[in-house]
Amino acid sequence: MACISEHHLNENTMLGVWKIEEDLNTLLSMVDLSPEDRHKFSIFKSTSRKMEFLSVRALLAELLGPDARIVYNKNNKPFIKDGSHFISISHSNKLTAIMLSSRERIGLDLEYMSANITGIARKFINKNEKITSNRELRKYHLYLHWCAKEAIFKICDKEGINMQKNITIYPFEVEQSGGMRGEVKSDLINEIFDLEYARYENYAIVWTKKEYDDKESEKAKMYRPVNGS
Q: What is the model's pTM?
């Protein structure tokens, strides 16, 4: 069993993380793929992509049970087929993470901290954001900003958001785990989000959640799959 953590963030929302230690055949034996999933699986060329796909389904079965199914709307946003939960998915290297909520908007991102992220920081960091000068923490701090912006991008589910221009992460002290805040300002959105983060080995993980108000709940229904398709 490779589900390394399962966190119930509140009565409606949970976060699970899976460390891929199995081989491809073992992962296949752990899931019951639908015909649609079998078709998608057959299209993937790389073994790593196949294992990511299977690990997501294995972790979902661990969290919600073997009958849970992922479907996608026209914007390729994932949902649980029976409409019981919203879902956000992220995977990098050997980790897969899923966030599920029956009531809250959610966004999740994780990254394996391997690349020289300093070289591309100018593409997603803006002038209002502060990055530590501590050389030992700088890479982690940059990855937290990147993951936070990805999580916010996912929770907003809107096109036309530029990660550098439209999303700002407020200054925060870097710890192994903690919280931060970020805001989105665009033509369509003006909103602040609370985010949580954690470090696992050489991975950065960031998530955010926010309860729908009544108007947002009606909007959300428009983005869900119709008849589970």
A: 0.89
